[in-house]
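Show me any protein, keeping tokens residue-aligned.
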Amino acid sequence: MNKNELLALLQPDIEQINETMHSEISQCGNALLQQILEYALFNGGKRIRPILTVLSARLCAFSRMPEGLAEEDELKPPVNLYLLAAIFEFLHGASLLHDDVIDNAGKRRGRPSANSVWDNTQVILAGDFLHARALTIAGTVGDQHTLSLIGHATAAMIQAEFLQMQTVQERNLSEKNYFSVLRGKTGCLISAACEVGAYFAQSGDAHQKALRSYGDALGLAFQVVDDLLDYQGDPGKTGKAVGNDFVEGKMTLPLIHALQNCDRKEFDRIMGLLKENPSARAGQIGEVYAFIEQYGGFDYARQGAETLVEAANEALAVFPDCQSRKILTGLANYVLTRQK
């Protein structure tokens, strides 16, 4: 299943998610706040997280039905499923708004970031509103367990930001530490999006666990590929300069692997660059790229992403062969070929 086929299958759900989000934002009660939220949320996002909630619920609902009772496309979504799914786009949007303020970012997805258009206070408050609205929906549309799953994922995102800052300061070369950051920043929210969909569809523990595992592996694979694109992607598509992670001092998997396998002289050279200021690091990206390539960092990270995608697809083996499962498999495989 290629990208265009995936998009065609997902488009009706994406449109419903967007419509639900527009409806929620229109009720925020402040024109400026609404303007910032519209700008931040409708800027080309793929809606992967809410789509995963919808697909997970649909897959679990179909799996519970007696064989032959109805076709998958005849199933009606549970009431408020799209509103529940929108929670995950709100949380993701909030994290991006806050990240851009923290990083003093000038662009997001190829256009001026919200903090470049409005002041930091307004952008932070807009992110806070999205957090508050997401948790309110979780507690009213869902239940205590739903709120717990989403609260845990939100806390994990914040904890991971602190861990990443410590990693940059300490130049931590541990792969375990690296994946802890990834799981908190990306994996936990994607995993929760899948698990909440399964829980909302009243699935059993086995199916919830399977989709939680799928989401965790998918989120990790997504971020590893993102780290590869930072060095190897087209800036016109990624919206970021090549080597931006290194400029920010981040220890990503391609660099970690190269540093773990080089000789002492080269190790000292690269670690010395990491102690320089960001502008000095930016001038050495060509050297760093060649260094990572020489020691197989890109190949190693690519193989890691492929293994994670395999794990994601294997987690779906407990479900019957159906359209929703095929789409979830297609989404996992797409992660390996995406360019932005």
